[in-house]
C-alpha cells in the first residue's frame, strides 16, 4: 500500500473510505495493465473456468499439482482432466516441451496459456492436440486452439507418484478391495506394484477421483469476493482465520 500510494490516489481514497474492494480491484487492474504476472493469468483462467463450470458442482479445480519433475499451474477436473501450463510475459519457454510431456503421462488434455505475441514462438514446440489460449491486450482470455484428448502416454506409475499416501491407499482399496497389510516401511512399494499394474485409463480415473477430493472452496459460497481476490481466497492456501479477516474488511 505504501508503494502504491506514491503513484496512485485510489490508495488514500480507499483507506479513508474503508473501501477495500476498490483498493484490491484497482491494484489488480494496474497489474493487469502493466505487470501481468502468473497470479493475473491464474486469476483470469480461474474466472473463465468458474463461468463454464457454474452448473457442474462436481468439478474440481486445483493449482500447483505435481507431475513428475514439473508442476501443473492449474488443473481442471470436469469429467476429464485438463492441465494448464502458464507462460507469462516474464517467463521463458525453455522447459515447455518437458512440461507438456510430463502432463501427458497424467492428464487427458493439456492447454498452454500465454500472451498473444508468444503464440508463434511456442506453436512449433506443441503437438497439435495441445490447446492454446492467450490473454489479449484488454485482459480477456481467448481460445486460439481447442485441446483434444491424448491418452497414448498415460502412465500409472507417474500418476501414483502424484498421490499422497491416504490417496493412493484409497485408490488401491477401490481397485482391489483391500490395502496391503504391511508395515509403513513397505506400504509405498506394495501399493506402487498394484497401482502400476492397472489399466492406464482406470488408473487415471482413480487418480482424478482422489485429486478432486483435494479441491475445495474456502468457506461458504454466499459471500461474493471481488474478482481481484476470488482466486486467492477460494483456491489459495490461506488459513481460515486469514480468510475471515479478508471477509471482515471487505464488508
Classification by helices and strands: alpha/beta
Task: Label the CATH architecture of the largest domain.
Answer: 3-Layer(aba) Sandwich
**Given the C-alpha coordinates, what overall shape results?**
globular
Alpha carbon gyration radius: 21 Å
Q: The CATH topology of the largest domain is what? A: Trna Endonuclease, Chain: A, domain 1
Question: Could you name the ranges where pLDDT drops below 50 across 5 or more consecutive residues?
Answer: none
Enumerate how many helices there are, as a single number.
Answer: 12
Largest sheet: 6 strands, mixed
The percentage of residues in β strands lies in: 15-25%
Give the CATH class of the largest domain.
Alpha Beta
Relative helix content: 40-55%
* Strand order within the widest beta sheet: 1-2-3-4-5-6
Average pLDDT value?
91
* Terminal-residue CA separation: 19 Å
Order of helices and strands: HHHHEEEHEHEEHHHHHH
Please indicate the count of domains: 3
SS elements, strand count: 6
Account of the 3D structure:
This protein is α/β, with parallel strands linked by helices. It has three domains: about 1-35, no CATH class; about 40-155, Trna Endonuclease, Chain: A, domain 1 (3-Layer(aba) Sandwich), CATH 3.40.1350; about 155-215, no CATH class. It has twelve helices and six strands. The chain has helices spanning about 1-5, 10-15, 20-35, 40-50, 95-105, 120, 155-160, 165-175, 185-195, 200-215, 225-235, 240-250; strands spanning about 60-65, 70-75, 80-85, 110-115, 130-135, 140-145. It has a six-stranded mixed beta sheet with strand order 1-2-3-4-5-6, sandwiched between helices. A hairpin with a 2-residue loop joins strand 1 and strand 2. Helix 4 (about 40-50) packs across helix 11 (about 225-235) and helix 8 (about 165-175) crosses helix 10. It starts with a helix and ends with a helix.
